[in-house]
Amino acid sequence: MNTEITIHPKLQHCGITTGNLEAMVEWYRKTIGIVVHNRVKAPAGSPFKSVAFATNDEVNHRLSFFETPGITIDKDKDGHARVQHIAFAYESLDDLLGTYLRLKKTGMLPLWAADQFFQTAIYYEDPDGNILELNTNNFASDWTVTEQLKALPPQVHINIDPEKIVAARKAGASAWEVHERAVAGEFTPASSYELHTSRW
Asked: Which residue, 132, 21, 125, is CA-closest to 71?
């Protein structure tokens, strides 16, 4: 057993408390395709009623939903310490854009979208007001993305209109060309996203 150096475990899952379990599970099923592997009753004396273990890949669970009757949604959460967002990554820009279009057809619109230089991200709000980030790397390898993130200037963050990005891809622009044009400001939204500063 190593007792001298820090072993680096992989981030496996996130736990979310909710008083609205069915709506939350359905929302995450629609957005990222989760499947609930099991739902178990909490032991006596627990602050929650049950736990639903869900995943959208080969890992046994990526999200744990703790059903907690009587809890309320914090309307002032932007001013409180909290988890800012949970992120899921796509293999390609087209996978991200295809998801945006699929969700749009069901009436689910994003809060905002951005080219953050090292990645492109679209943000959604779940039924309890938690932020879900869907993203894709703008560079070919994780190593390159890491190096770009290390060298990122303080102000590189360009809000984008996903509709303009979709149109550019349909017109034949490569994913890299879309990124370059986004950074140049070509795909900014017609109006600013109305966001609370603390969400950034």
From this structure: 21
